[in-house]
Amino acid sequence: MKNNVKLFVLVAFIFLFSCGDKKVDTTAAREEMEAREIKVVPEAKVIERALQLGDSLVAKMNQDSAMTQSGDVYQSWNMSGTKISSTAYLMFKTYAMGEKETEVFQAYEYSAKNSIEVEPNIQTLPEAMVLYNAPIIENDKLVGMWSIHLPRKYIVLSIKD
Questions:
Q1: How buried is 69 (Cβ within 10 angstroms: 0-12 exposed, 13-18 middle, 19+ buried)?
Q2: In the sheet where 129-138 sits, what is the strand order?
Q3: In this predicted model, what pLDDT tens digit does every residue of 116-128 receive, in sequence order?
Q4: pLDDT per residue over 70-88, tens digit each?
Q5: 103/152 Cα distance (integer angstroms)
Q6: pTM of the model
Q7: What stretches of 36-119 show up as alpha helix (H) in DSSP?
């Protein structure tokens, strides 16, 4: 009985003095928990974010004018631990590409032959990837196509709501 009283006094003593008036900042922990929550993201938001990411990457690549003149350019980035790759394809050349890339490239070639304006576009690929394509324009003329493979997981995690 005496041991129980000593134990109770010890626990009460620790409890009283361990709980000070200091508040613990839990903001970082709360933000991390919210970031790890499972989200349901509509397909429209995924496509919108993929267009934003693709546009920003193409803007970076277009700053280097030598890249668009050399053709067959392959560039890779490691963004937040995710590998993102891009390739520049020049018009009226033959390339080994995936099915969707080939279809978009042929549409860009058709547009170049017929002076039709083209816009960046998004294609979903079955292997949890999103394909972003954008025209390479030089001297107001379509000369090629940027093709960027964006992992779907990277796109979803980059959406901030």
A1: middle
A2: 74-79, 82-90, 141-151, 129-138, 121-125
A3: 899 999 999 888 8
A4: 455 666 767 767 778 788 8
A5: 21
A6: 0.71
A7: 43-62, 65-70, 99-113
